[in-house]
Design a protein that fits this description.
Blueprint (H helix, E strand, L loop, with lengths): L6 E7 L3 H14 L3 E4 L8 H4 L20 H6 L9 H14 L6 E2 L4 E7 L4 E6 L4 E9 L21 E4 L14 E5 L3 H13 L2 E6 L6 E2 L7 H9 L1 H9 L19 H14 L16 H18 L3 H7 L12 E2 L2 H4 L5 E5 L6 E4 L3 E4 L2 E4 L2 E4 L7 H5 L3 E2 L6 H4 L18 E3 L12 H22 L4 E3 L1 H16 L30 H14 L5 E3 L1
Parallel strand pairs: 1-2, 1-6, 2-3, 4-17, 6-18, 7-16, 8-9, 8-16, 9-12, 10-11
Antiparallel strand pairs: 4-5, 5-6, 13-14, 14-15, 19-20
Helix pairs in contact: 1-14, 14-16
Bound molecules: flavin-adenine dinucleotide.
């Protein structure tokens, strides 16, 4: 291949929701020559990799989709309020086929490094199959929850049974029938998987490090009249979600929970609980994310629900979290708490029964006790947000390495750009709303902002754009200042980087007091102001 044919206008890394839309926009709207690299064998990202039983979205399907394809919004019929992984993957495959995306995507190809070549303002990209390509723009669409966290459990190599991580589940699935199964972890993934595995397995043992507040999903078919009404109002839905707190159409109660009477708030909580999903959320009352007293009122309600559902009071107490509601990613559940009423389900809690000490030939040793298993499923999550970006081995101006620049946590401008790394754009990067929102809405905002920026640069004859260090540090300070006034830093969560030993403690997403609508307005103002805070060359 000649060197000319290996130079693109833009290289995009990742082919999930983000990379697919980025490709579509840059290629078909801006008219660029684009190459996408994807480590997986097909499109879909999260929905290609996470094939564990019970995997489904927690965002409602009518807003968890590509709102940029207005015709498809009308044509596609989701089977449920929260579709399962195979259905979402089928949808994304359909999007790829309809827009002829695959011809520009190299599958089974992992980007292993990229250096900014200052002599001609090009990113030089290397892949694991030895390919070397170059492009003016490098856009990461690597996902926020894509870098599997597999803790180095002592003795794992000795285990004689089968084991897997939920995010790398075998394609054909696993038959749990008549098997003794362990699930390690109780985060959002485990909460989806546990009730399904418990139905099949002879014995299921759950190893819990920290419990979480789970909310009832209330999944099911959506009333056809409601579907029709939503389809008729998609323009409105798109506008409302874009300007919302978190990319959903949710009610807010514009007052302090402490101002409401006990009856009033019980009624409000009941109503949200009955609606299901994220209708019950941290932003309902104004102060639940800010004040311990306000949050306690909400957790009292949730604790009562757990105690009422779980029959054994001892197990119920183990399942009751100690942290503030909402400061960890809230799982949505379908029969999660009910599962602990089954005779074939055992809960081993690290605090009361003792933590996992090692994996043995026959199972797991925890709290000095041996448990025997045929299969171990690790639902231990991800090195969130910074993990997949650091793994890219990016080198910017003057040989600066991303992992060195981020040694004490992420430093970005708007979560979209990093000083010293010209023409690099990070879709849903750290310090952007990302995981605190319904992600397709945030993804589409970033993709459109990046495409507009590149288009403007081309029209004005600019070849480089990079964040100014002072603008970046002001953004980092802003992100940290906002979160320091909330309850988030009081909890050890992956939002706070606390799930990975040695990961510098930092709040990874960005919490805008005016929600993702406020963040969008800020990004738009910066663009309108000639990309304030960026140097254009
Ligand atoms: C189980 C699960 C459930 C979720 N449910 C929801 C939900 O209900 N609502 C919601 O808003 N969000 C949810 N999320 C978050 C979800 O990741 C996003 O909604 C969305 O799918 C992200 O799309 P993406 O394209 O940005 O990233 P991803 O879908 O993660 O895709 C990133 C892609 O980049 C590829 N990649 C990474 N590094 C490289 C490399 N070096 N070289 C080549 N390719 C690379 C990966 O293989 C992957 O395919 C969930 C996440 C998980 C794990």
């Amino acid at each position: 291949m000649s060197s000319a044919s290996r130079t693109f206008d833009a290289i995009v890394i990742g082919a999930g929701f983000s990379g697919m839309y980025m490709l579509k926009t840059l290629r078909d709207r801006v008219g660029l020559k684009v190459r996408v690299y994807e480590a997986g064998e097909t499109v879909g990202g999260t929905w290609h990799w996470n094939r564990y039983p019970g995997a489904r979205c927690d965002s409602e399907s009518y807003v968890y989709c590509c709102t940029w394809d207005r015709e498809l919004l009308q044509e596609w019929e989701w089977s449920e309020r929260y579709p399962e992984q195979p259905e979402i993957l089928r949808y994304l495959e359909h999007v790829a086929a309809r827009h002829d995306l695959k011809r520009d995507i190299r599958f089974n190809t992992r980007v292993t490094g990229a250096d900014f070549d200052e002599s001609n303002n090009l990113w030089r990209v290397r892949t694991d199959n030895g390919e070397e390509t170059a492009a003016r723009y490098l856009i990461t669409a690597v996902g926020t929850l894509s870098d599997t966290n597999m803790p180095p459990f002592r003795g794992l190599e000795k285990f004689r049974g089968q084991w897997c991580h939920t995010s790398r589940f075998p394609r054909g699935g696993i038959d749990f029938t008549a098997k003794r199964v362990a699930v390690v972890g109780t985060g959002a993934t485990a909460v989806q998987a546990i009730p399904v595995i418990a139905q099949q397995a002879k014995q299921l043992t759950v190893f819990q490090r920290t419990p979480n507040y789970c909310l009832p999903a209330r999944n099911g078919k959506v009333d056809p009249e409601r579907v029709k009404a939503r389809k008729a109002d998609y323009d409105g839905i798109i506008e409302r979600t874009r300007q919302s707190v978190a990319g959903f159409e949710l009610d807010r109660i514009p007052k302090s929970v402490l101002e409401a009477t006990a009856e009033e708030r019980e009624r409000a909580f009941d109503r949200m609980w009955d609606q299901g999903g994220f209708a019950f959320n941290l932003a309902n009352y104004q102060d639940m994310v800010l004040s311990e007293a306000a949050n306690d009122i909400c957790t009292d309600y949730l604790k009562r629900k757990i105690r009422r559902t779980v029959k054994d009071p001892g197990i119920a107490e183990k399942l009751i979290p100690k942290h503030h509601f909402g400061t960890k990613r809230t799982p949505l559940d379908t029969n999660y708490y009910e599962t602990y009423n089954k005779d074939n389900v055992l809960l081993v809690d690290a605090k009361t029964d003792g933590p996992i000490e090692e994996i043995t030939e026959n199972g797991i040793r925890a709290g000095g006790k041996d448990y025997e298993f045929d299969i171990i499923v690790f639902a231990t999550g991800f090195d969130a947000l910074t993990g997949p970006l650091k793994a890219l081995n990016l080198t910017g101006r003057g040989g600066c390495k991303l992992d060195q620049v981020w040694a004490d946590g992420p430093h970005t401008y708007l979560g979209i750009s990093v000083a010293g790394f010209p023409n690099l754009f990070t879709i849903t990067g750290p310090q952007s709303p990302s995981v605190l929102s319904n992600m397709p809405v945030s993804i589409e905002q970033h993709v459109e902002w990046i495409a507009d920026c590149i288009e403007t640069m081309r029209k004005t004859g600019k070849t480089t754009i990079e964040a100014l260090p002072e603008a970046q540090e002001a953004w980092v300070a802003h992100v940290n200042e906002i979160v320091s006034g909330t309850l988030f830093p009081r909890t050890n969560s992956w939002y706070m980087s606390a799930n990975i030993p040695g990961k510098p403690r930092a709040f990874l997403p960005y919490l805008n007091p005016e929600g993702i609508g406020g963040y969008r307005r800020r990004c738009d103002e910066i663009a309108a102001d000639g990309y304030a805070g960026f140097a254009l060359g």
